[in-house]
TrEMBL record:
The protein, known as: Uncharacterized protein
Source species of the chain: Streptomyces boncukensis
């Protein structure tokens, strides 16, 4: 992030990144329930990815491997 980036801007970027990932994951049939744009960490936009069930993570891992 550059010097002009504010914490509010970083928060908005993190939220948008989380929304985009949620949309992409929906195409795979996977949903991470606690996927969320978080508060900036060390001045960088941050996305919280945790909170998925093991079944969801296995499905996502399988989907990624099939396309890698």
């Amino acid at each position: 992030m550059n010097e002009e980036t504010t914490p509010e801007t970083a928060l908005a970027v993190g939220r948008r990144a989380a929304e985009e990932l949620a949309e992409a994951l929906a195409l795979t049939g996977c949903k991470l329930p606690s996927l969320n744009g978080g508060f900036p960490v060390m001045g960088q936009a941050h996305v919280e990815l945790g909170g998925a069930s093991a079944v969801t993570v296995f499905a996502l891992a399988r989907w990624i491997r099939e396309r890698a």
